[in-house]
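retry 2 of 3: previous attempt timed out while embedding fe (ii) ion. Reduced batch size to 1 and resubmitted. Inputs unchanged:
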Amino acid sequence: MNTLPIIDIAPLFASEETGWHEVARQIDTACRDWGFFYIRNHPISAERIAQLKDAAERFFGLPVEQKLQIDITKSTHHRGYGAVATEQLDPAKPSDLKETFDMGFHMPHDHPDVLAGKPLRGPNRHPDIEGWPTLFEQHYQDMHSLACTLLRALADALGVESAFFDERFIEPISVFRMIHYPPRQTATSPEQQGAGAHTDYGCITLLYQDEAGGLQVQNVRGEWIDAPPIEGTFVVNIGDMMARWSNDRYKSTPHRVISPLGVDRYSMPFFAEPNPDTLISCLPGCQDEANRPKYPDTTCSAYMLSRFAETYAYRREAPAAAS
Ligand SMILES: O=C(O)CCC(=O)C(=O)O
Ligand SMILES: [Fe+2]
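retry 2 succeeded.
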Protein backbone atom coordinates (compact mmCIF):
# COMPACT_ATOMS: atom_id res chain seq x y z
CA MET A 1 0.00 0.00 0.00
CA ASN A 2 1.49 3.30 -1.04
CA THR A 3 -1.10 5.90 -0.17
CA LEU A 4 -1.57 7.52 3.19
CA PRO A 5 -4.63 6.46 5.21
CA ILE A 6 -7.63 8.82 5.39
CA ILE A 7 -9.51 8.50 8.68
CA ASP A 8 -13.03 9.80 9.30
CA ILE A 9 -12.89 11.13 12.86
CA ALA A 10 -16.60 12.08 13.17
CA PRO A 11 -17.22 9.28 15.74
CA LEU A 12 -14.79 11.02 18.14
CA PHE A 13 -17.34 13.85 18.43
CA ALA A 14 -20.47 11.66 18.79
CA SER A 15 -22.21 11.39 22.16
CA GLU A 16 -22.16 7.58 22.23
CA GLU A 17 -18.83 5.78 22.31
CA THR A 18 -19.61 3.03 19.79
CA GLY A 19 -17.41 4.23 16.93
CA TRP A 20 -14.72 5.63 19.16
CA HIS A 21 -12.56 2.54 19.64
CA GLU A 22 -12.67 1.79 15.92
CA VAL A 23 -11.24 5.26 15.14
CA ALA A 24 -8.57 4.72 17.83
CA ARG A 25 -7.69 1.41 16.19
CA GLN A 26 -7.36 3.01 12.75
CA ILE A 27 -5.18 5.78 14.14
CA ASP A 28 -3.02 3.21 15.95
CA THR A 29 -2.43 1.27 12.71
CA ALA A 30 -1.68 4.47 10.76
CA CYS A 31 0.82 5.64 13.41
CA ARG A 32 2.61 2.27 13.40
CA ASP A 33 2.72 1.85 9.63
CA TRP A 34 3.21 5.40 8.46
CA GLY A 35 3.36 7.94 11.26
CA PHE A 36 1.19 9.97 8.86
CA PHE A 37 -2.53 10.05 8.03
CA TYR A 38 -5.29 12.41 6.92
CA ILE A 39 -8.31 13.26 9.03
CA ARG A 40 -11.68 14.20 7.61
CA ASN A 41 -14.85 15.42 9.33
CA HIS A 42 -12.97 17.54 11.85
CA PRO A 43 -14.66 20.62 13.38
CA ILE A 44 -12.51 23.39 11.82
CA SER A 45 -14.74 25.17 9.30
CA ALA A 46 -13.88 26.02 5.70
CA GLU A 47 -14.77 29.61 6.56
CA ARG A 48 -12.10 29.68 9.31
CA ILE A 49 -9.50 28.33 6.89
CA ALA A 50 -10.46 30.99 4.32
CA GLN A 51 -10.09 33.75 6.96
CA LEU A 52 -6.66 32.46 7.97
CA LYS A 53 -5.50 32.18 4.40
CA ASP A 54 -6.66 35.69 3.68
CA ALA A 55 -4.77 36.93 6.76
CA ALA A 56 -1.66 35.00 5.66
CA GLU A 57 -1.71 36.63 2.21
CA ARG A 58 -2.08 40.09 3.77
CA PHE A 59 0.71 39.58 6.28
CA PHE A 60 3.28 37.93 4.02
CA GLY A 61 2.49 40.56 1.36
CA LEU A 62 3.72 43.38 3.65
CA PRO A 63 7.14 44.98 3.08
CA VAL A 64 9.82 42.97 4.85
CA GLU A 65 10.74 45.85 7.22
CA GLN A 66 7.18 45.80 8.52
CA LYS A 67 7.21 42.04 9.03
CA LEU A 68 10.56 42.32 10.81
CA GLN A 69 8.91 44.47 13.49
CA ILE A 70 8.04 41.11 15.05
CA ASP A 71 11.31 39.37 14.05
CA ILE A 72 11.44 35.93 15.70
CA THR A 73 15.21 36.13 16.00
CA LYS A 74 14.74 39.11 18.36
CA SER A 75 12.31 37.19 20.55
CA THR A 76 13.40 35.42 23.71
CA HIS A 77 10.56 32.94 23.51
CA HIS A 78 10.34 32.09 19.81
CA ARG A 79 7.33 34.08 18.59
CA GLY A 80 6.82 36.19 15.51
CA TYR A 81 8.08 36.42 11.95
CA GLY A 82 10.82 34.23 10.50
CA ALA A 83 12.21 35.63 7.24
CA VAL A 84 13.33 33.40 4.35
CA ALA A 85 16.38 31.28 5.34
CA THR A 86 15.91 31.65 9.13
CA GLU A 87 15.35 27.91 9.49
CA GLN A 88 17.43 25.06 8.08
CA LEU A 89 15.56 21.81 8.57
CA ASP A 90 17.99 19.61 6.64
CA PRO A 91 21.57 20.44 7.74
CA ALA A 92 22.93 18.97 4.51
CA LYS A 93 20.98 21.46 2.35
CA PRO A 94 20.74 25.25 2.03
CA SER A 95 18.30 27.06 4.36
CA ASP A 96 14.60 26.63 3.67
CA LEU A 97 12.89 28.73 1.02
CA LYS A 98 9.96 29.85 3.19
CA GLU A 99 8.84 32.58 5.58
CA THR A 100 6.88 31.93 8.75
CA PHE A 101 4.74 33.36 11.54
CA ASP A 102 4.83 31.49 14.87
CA MET A 103 2.55 31.87 17.87
CA GLY A 104 2.06 29.82 21.01
CA PHE A 105 0.21 29.71 24.29
CA HIS A 106 -0.11 33.35 25.32
CA MET A 107 1.29 34.31 28.72
CA PRO A 108 1.36 38.00 29.70
CA HIS A 109 4.64 39.67 30.72
CA ASP A 110 3.63 39.60 34.40
CA HIS A 111 2.80 35.86 34.50
CA PRO A 112 4.96 34.19 37.20
CA ASP A 113 6.48 31.75 34.66
CA VAL A 114 7.45 34.65 32.37
CA LEU A 115 8.87 36.66 35.27
CA ALA A 116 10.82 33.54 36.31
CA GLY A 117 12.34 33.44 32.80
CA LYS A 118 10.96 29.99 31.89
CA PRO A 119 12.00 29.13 28.33
CA LEU A 120 9.51 29.49 25.45
CA ARG A 121 7.05 31.39 27.69
CA GLY A 122 5.69 34.87 27.04
CA PRO A 123 3.17 36.93 25.13
CA ASN A 124 2.31 36.34 21.50
CA ARG A 125 3.65 38.91 19.06
CA HIS A 126 0.91 39.58 16.54
CA PRO A 127 1.22 41.86 13.52
CA ASP A 128 -0.68 45.11 13.56
CA ILE A 129 -3.55 43.90 11.33
CA GLU A 130 -7.14 44.51 12.33
CA GLY A 131 -8.90 41.45 13.74
CA TRP A 132 -5.71 39.37 13.70
CA PRO A 133 -5.24 38.67 17.46
CA THR A 134 -8.88 37.59 17.94
CA LEU A 135 -8.84 35.29 14.90
CA PHE A 136 -5.50 33.68 15.70
CA GLU A 137 -6.01 33.27 19.47
CA GLN A 138 -9.38 31.60 18.77
CA HIS A 139 -7.84 29.34 16.16
CA TYR A 140 -5.02 28.34 18.51
CA GLN A 141 -7.61 27.25 21.10
CA ASP A 142 -9.64 25.32 18.53
CA MET A 143 -6.55 23.50 17.22
CA HIS A 144 -5.58 22.70 20.81
CA SER A 145 -9.03 21.12 21.39
CA LEU A 146 -8.79 19.12 18.18
CA ALA A 147 -5.30 17.89 19.12
CA CYS A 148 -6.58 16.87 22.58
CA THR A 149 -9.43 14.90 20.98
CA LEU A 150 -6.97 13.00 18.78
CA LEU A 151 -4.69 12.45 21.78
CA ARG A 152 -7.61 10.88 23.69
CA ALA A 153 -7.91 8.36 20.85
CA LEU A 154 -4.14 7.80 21.00
CA ALA A 155 -4.38 7.26 24.77
CA ASP A 156 -6.94 4.54 24.11
CA ALA A 157 -4.67 2.95 21.50
CA LEU A 158 -1.60 3.16 23.73
CA GLY A 159 -3.36 1.70 26.78
CA VAL A 160 -3.11 4.70 29.13
CA GLU A 161 -6.12 6.33 30.84
CA SER A 162 -8.14 8.55 28.51
CA ALA A 163 -7.23 11.80 30.33
CA PHE A 164 -3.48 10.99 30.27
CA PHE A 165 -2.63 13.55 27.59
CA ASP A 166 -5.30 16.11 28.62
CA GLU A 167 -3.57 16.42 31.99
CA ARG A 168 -0.21 16.89 30.32
CA PHE A 169 -1.41 19.44 27.76
CA ILE A 170 -2.44 22.12 30.28
CA GLU A 171 -0.64 25.38 29.38
CA PRO A 172 1.14 23.56 26.55
CA ILE A 173 4.05 24.79 24.45
CA SER A 174 2.19 23.92 21.23
CA VAL A 175 2.94 26.20 18.30
CA PHE A 176 0.63 27.37 15.54
CA ARG A 177 2.61 28.38 12.50
CA MET A 178 1.73 29.91 9.16
CA ILE A 179 4.14 29.28 6.33
CA HIS A 180 4.49 31.02 2.98
CA TYR A 181 6.56 29.26 0.33
CA PRO A 182 7.40 31.67 -2.49
CA PRO A 183 7.46 30.11 -5.95
CA ARG A 184 10.72 28.43 -6.91
CA GLN A 185 12.72 30.54 -9.36
CA THR A 186 14.54 28.78 -12.15
CA ALA A 187 17.72 30.37 -10.79
CA THR A 188 17.17 28.80 -7.35
CA SER A 189 19.63 26.08 -6.51
CA PRO A 190 17.87 22.76 -7.13
CA GLU A 191 19.21 21.76 -3.72
CA GLN A 192 17.18 24.42 -1.92
CA GLN A 193 13.81 23.14 -0.81
CA GLY A 194 10.72 24.77 0.63
CA ALA A 195 11.33 22.68 3.72
CA GLY A 196 14.28 20.31 3.87
CA ALA A 197 13.77 16.67 4.89
CA HIS A 198 13.11 16.44 8.63
CA THR A 199 11.06 14.83 11.34
CA ASP A 200 8.90 16.99 13.61
CA TYR A 201 10.07 17.40 17.20
CA GLY A 202 6.86 17.37 19.20
CA CYS A 203 4.01 14.91 19.79
CA ILE A 204 1.61 15.30 16.89
CA THR A 205 1.37 17.84 14.07
CA LEU A 206 -1.93 18.80 12.44
CA LEU A 207 -1.31 20.44 9.10
CA TYR A 208 -3.56 22.39 6.80
CA GLN A 209 -2.05 22.71 3.31
CA ASP A 210 -3.54 24.69 0.45
CA GLU A 211 -4.05 23.36 -3.07
CA ALA A 212 -0.48 24.01 -4.36
CA GLY A 213 0.94 20.58 -3.33
CA GLY A 214 4.60 19.74 -2.73
CA LEU A 215 4.49 17.88 0.61
CA GLN A 216 6.28 14.53 0.43
CA VAL A 217 6.58 11.73 2.98
CA GLN A 218 9.10 8.89 3.14
CA ASN A 219 7.60 5.40 3.06
CA VAL A 220 9.11 2.35 4.79
CA ARG A 221 11.29 1.64 1.75
CA GLY A 222 12.80 5.13 1.96
CA GLU A 223 10.99 6.36 -1.18
CA TRP A 224 9.46 9.83 -1.29
CA ILE A 225 5.75 9.77 -1.98
CA ASP A 226 3.41 12.72 -2.44
CA ALA A 227 1.00 13.70 0.33
CA PRO A 228 -1.31 15.68 -1.97
CA PRO A 229 -3.80 18.26 -0.72
CA ILE A 230 -7.24 16.76 -0.06
CA GLU A 231 -9.93 19.35 0.46
CA GLY A 232 -11.43 19.54 3.94
CA THR A 233 -8.71 17.42 5.58
CA PHE A 234 -5.74 17.92 7.85
CA VAL A 235 -2.59 15.86 7.52
CA VAL A 236 -1.60 14.49 10.93
CA ASN A 237 1.85 13.17 11.75
CA ILE A 238 3.77 11.84 14.71
CA GLY A 239 6.75 13.81 16.03
CA ASP A 240 9.93 12.59 17.72
CA MET A 241 8.70 13.24 21.26
CA MET A 242 5.76 10.88 20.74
CA ALA A 243 8.05 8.33 19.08
CA ARG A 244 10.22 8.42 22.23
CA TRP A 245 7.23 8.34 24.58
CA SER A 246 5.88 5.26 22.77
CA ASN A 247 9.32 3.59 22.53
CA ASP A 248 9.15 3.83 18.72
CA ARG A 249 5.83 2.01 18.51
CA TYR A 250 4.78 5.12 16.61
CA LYS A 251 6.98 6.41 13.84
CA SER A 252 8.08 9.97 13.33
CA THR A 253 8.45 9.91 9.58
CA PRO A 254 10.75 12.15 7.51
CA HIS A 255 8.94 14.58 5.26
CA ARG A 256 9.82 17.62 3.15
CA VAL A 257 8.26 20.28 0.95
CA ILE A 258 9.29 20.82 -2.65
CA SER A 259 8.91 24.51 -3.46
CA PRO A 260 5.97 25.22 -5.73
CA LEU A 261 6.72 26.14 -9.32
CA GLY A 262 4.97 29.32 -10.47
CA VAL A 263 2.56 29.61 -7.53
CA ASP A 264 2.77 30.63 -3.88
CA ARG A 265 2.03 27.97 -1.31
CA TYR A 266 0.55 28.49 2.16
CA SER A 267 0.43 25.90 4.90
CA MET A 268 -0.50 26.03 8.59
CA PRO A 269 0.86 23.38 10.92
CA PHE A 270 -0.19 23.13 14.55
CA PHE A 271 2.57 21.41 16.51
CA ALA A 272 1.00 19.88 19.64
CA GLU A 273 3.51 19.79 22.47
CA PRO A 274 2.77 19.26 26.17
CA ASN A 275 3.35 21.40 29.21
CA PRO A 276 7.12 22.08 29.38
CA ASP A 277 7.56 20.28 32.72
CA THR A 278 6.05 17.03 31.39
CA LEU A 279 8.22 13.98 31.94
CA ILE A 280 8.74 12.06 28.71
CA SER A 281 9.33 8.54 29.94
CA CYS A 282 8.53 5.33 28.07
CA LEU A 283 4.79 4.57 28.47
CA PRO A 284 4.00 1.45 30.51
CA GLY A 285 2.20 -0.34 27.64
CA CYS A 286 5.13 0.22 25.27
CA GLN A 287 7.74 -1.84 27.11
CA ASP A 288 8.24 -5.39 28.29
CA GLU A 289 11.10 -7.83 28.91
CA ALA A 290 11.86 -8.17 25.22
CA ASN A 291 11.35 -4.49 24.45
CA ARG A 292 13.16 -2.34 27.02
CA PRO A 293 12.92 1.48 26.95
CA LYS A 294 15.24 2.75 24.21
CA TYR A 295 15.56 6.37 25.32
CA PRO A 296 16.54 7.99 28.62
CA ASP A 297 13.85 10.04 30.36
CA THR A 298 13.70 13.72 29.46
CA THR A 299 11.30 16.63 29.88
CA CYS A 300 9.31 18.29 27.17
CA SER A 301 11.18 21.61 27.48
CA ALA A 302 14.68 20.09 27.64
CA TYR A 303 13.96 18.06 24.55
CA MET A 304 12.36 20.88 22.53
CA LEU A 305 15.13 23.37 23.34
CA SER A 306 17.81 20.93 22.22
CA ARG A 307 15.99 20.39 18.92
CA PHE A 308 15.36 24.10 18.23
CA ALA A 309 19.06 24.81 18.64
CA GLU A 310 19.80 22.39 15.79
CA THR A 311 17.69 24.17 13.20
CA TYR A 312 17.72 27.86 14.21
CA ALA A 313 21.15 29.47 14.19
CA TYR A 314 19.83 32.42 16.22
CA ARG A 315 18.98 30.12 19.14
CA ARG A 316 22.61 28.95 19.37
CA GLU A 317 24.07 32.44 19.22
CA ALA A 318 24.12 35.39 21.64
CA PRO A 319 20.81 35.86 23.50
CA ALA A 320 18.37 38.14 21.66
CA ALA A 321 17.19 41.44 23.13
CA ALA A 322 14.09 40.77 25.18
CA SER A 323 10.78 41.17 23.39
O1 LIG B 1 4.30 23.07 4.82
C1 LIG B 1 4.13 21.86 4.91
O2 LIG B 1 3.35 21.25 4.19
C2 LIG B 1 4.90 21.05 5.93
C3 LIG B 1 5.69 21.89 6.87
C4 LIG B 1 6.45 21.08 7.85
O3 LIG B 1 6.68 19.91 7.68
C5 LIG B 1 6.94 21.71 9.10
O4 LIG B 1 6.87 22.95 9.21
O5 LIG B 1 7.38 20.97 10.00
FE1 LIG C 1 7.33 19.01 9.49
